[in-house]
Design goal:
182 residues, alpha/beta
Amino acid sequence: MEVHLAGRDVEVEVASGVFSPGGIDKGTRVLLEELPAAPGTGDLLDLGCGWGPLALTMALESPGATVWAVDVNERALDLVRRNAERLGVSNVRAALPDDVPDDVTFAGLWSNPPIRVGKEALHALLERWLPRLADDAEGWLVVQKNLGSDSLARWITETLGLRVEREASSKGFRVLRVTRGA
């Protein structure tokens, strides 16, 4: 399938059983439209990568960075690897959560988090990864407004002590920027 990533039309492979098998979903598209450029170096994280639109965009924009594409779905990780190879990017590491070394901190994090896994599982996921942002890093999340974006933002601030700012609202989604700032 042909999609538009990092300012260019590219061909990627998608599949059933992986989030958004029809291409780039609406939430991810909103996030991609609102994001600043990915940091040029360091470790970057696409949390819940699916077939890889966010990870591939980061890899294309930031060839000097290491992009961690993390998902619990092995089929998704296989698609990310194949798509990275197809696009000629060698800086993507598709990995299960436990395969990312604990000492890696992230210069940037982009995610369309799996809200529908339930509040408890979502909170556990964010508690594991958001605190791994480097001191000067930004995490970017897109969350559907009617699926609790505002309450999730409050929870991140109250529970994790991180700052959350609503950077944009579009097509029923909120784009949230997460930082360590006061």
